[in-house]
Amino acid sequence: MQLSNIPQIKHTNSGQFFLLAGPCAIEGEDMALRIAEEVVAITDELQIPYVFKGSFKKANRSRLDSFTGIGDEKALKILRKVSETFKIPTITDIHTEQDATMAAGYVDVLQIPAFLARQTDLVVAAAETGKTVNVKKGQFMSPESMKHAVTKVTETGNDNVWITDRGTMFGYHDMIVDFRGVPTMQQYAPVVLDVTHSLQQPNQSSGVTGGRPALIGTMARAGIAAGVDGLFMETHFDPSNAKSDGANMLDLGLLKKLLSDLVAIRQVVNRL
């Protein structure tokens, strides 16, 4: 798999999985730089190709009073500062065709949220920017159906596309990851496993999404053993006070041990 089209990405010849990681939402400049600095230090030590993740706005919220962002341009400028400060690429999710054009001026990878994976105009608009497009598999979609999402990108002339699995909805409050889908989707594009959103418990009566962060390590280890190309995870130095998705984020203090374990598993997988 080629990552060379991603500006400033490092360690591409290490044989390791690549990592998309950062806070759920950009809450401010200091928090973004603090998280990025720590993740960069860890991934450089372990030689993991790294892309900093942060949403410049959150459009998919359970309640009207949920945190949605600090302002689009303000958050996008913070993502640009993270990239310039640490010489790393960045990724953010978009929700409209206008978002695609705007965000492409600040970040290196555009992400299509899972609920919007079938929105043709949005996917095409992202592809037409020339940026790498990360399409999250809808919780309601089969692995096989993601072929069509990928084709929407490639038929614009953009071959830089990934698929991210974040589970399939079973019942009202749980997602299940079916690892049989990994080799299926790898026929179409590199596959990323979103280990934190896969452990969400949405649609709670409180209107606040729950999660099972104690299982992040289990999910991540299973993904690497199954041969995924990359991992996606949200992390924060204070998940309980994060403004979005704190219930299923990884505490930043646990990241180095987890990634060290995953690097060791990947080395075994590579040998096999």
From TrEMBL:
InterPro entries: Aldolase_TIM, DAHP1/KDSA, KDO8P_synthase. It comes from Croceitalea dokdonensis DOKDO 023. This is 3-deoxy-8-phosphooctulonate synthase. Belongs to the KdsA family. Its EC number is 2.5.1.55. Keywords: Cytoplasm, Transferase. GO terms for molecular function: 3-deoxy-8-phosphooctulonate synthase activity. It is found in: Cytoplasm.
